[in-house]
Amino acid sequence: MAEEKNLKIALITEDQGIQEYVSLILVGENYDVKTYFTQEEALAGLGGYLPDLVISDFQSPHINGMDICKALRRNYMFVHTPLIFILEETGPLTVGKVVYSGADDYVQKSTIEEEFLLRVKLNLHRAMRQQDVNLITRLPGQAGLLKELQKRIDAKSVTAVCSVDLLNFKDFNRRYGFKRGDEVIEFTSGLITQAMSELGSPTDFLAHPQGDDFIFITFPEGAEIIANKIIKDFDANILSFYDEEDRIRGHILLKSRKGEILKIPLLRVHIGIVTNEYYPFINPAQVIQIAVELNDFAQKNFGKSMFVKERRKEYPFLS
Question: What is the mean pLDDT of residues 115-120?
Fold first, then answer.
């Protein structure tokens, strides 16, 4: 079970007075705050911080709010992250630009003392209520995944859908508890995100529907490369989550319900890759089912971390 964590807020402003004042208020409300003075600095750092809310100057010498908003909305990690702009003035033209940019709210500098904290709390509350996100990884959940898949099916774009699953994760939780299990989930989310960032495209998508299941969407030509990096990085680092005795032993020991001692292999990652290169995607459920079937095949037929890619020219469901 995930521990309750302080919500994270990114503050992007060149006004040092505003930055100090707003940070003081937010920290006093137990928010985790990361500050940036320039747009370039913010866009370079937000991917590693993954805030629950972004507050930014709308227009200042080194910050263009509309560019920031466009950059965030192009990235699946920030599609649903609420964005509040800080405005010098709130004339009809400025407000119109804010609405057009895709921001969620705004606050005027002259009234920041009276309404700022209320705006923050309202936007966070609305986001938590409306968003379909995993509480551990902050990635889109099942509803977001189905919506993204349907969008790509409707567009008839050539797509690879990849199901990622950890073998023996439930047993790992039994041995080490939910806290360390959550750490493994965060680690896995991070290395998938890193692999996609380095080897994928800006239109790639990653979801965390449940438990130890992840699904990422990319172009077919990049799927195997990304999968190989995920497997390599996972296998190179997963032992760090085990106690020394289990690392040396090469497995964990658990008792069955009958009191028998079971030897459980260490965690492995398996990936099933399905594309619409040879047959069409009909609906999201069909796509996910095929990817999961391939994942299951990899788990049952290989004694190591592995990916399996669909290579059938026709799928039986379509005959």
Answer: 91
CATH of 142-318, one of 3.90.550.10, 3.50.50.60, 3.30.70.270, 1.10.3980.10: 3.30.70.270
Which sequence spans correspond to the domains of the chain? 8-130, 142-318
Nearest-CA neighbor of 270 among 183, 164, 192, 152?
Answer: 164
pTM for the complete prediction? 0.68
The reported pLDDT for the residue numbered 318 is 40
- If one looks up domain 8-130 in CATH, what number appears? 3.40.50.2300
Integer Cα distance of 86 and 100 in angstroms: 15
Q: Identify the pLDDT of residue 4.
A: 47
Is there a contact between 47 and 57 (Cβ–Cβ < 8 Å)? no
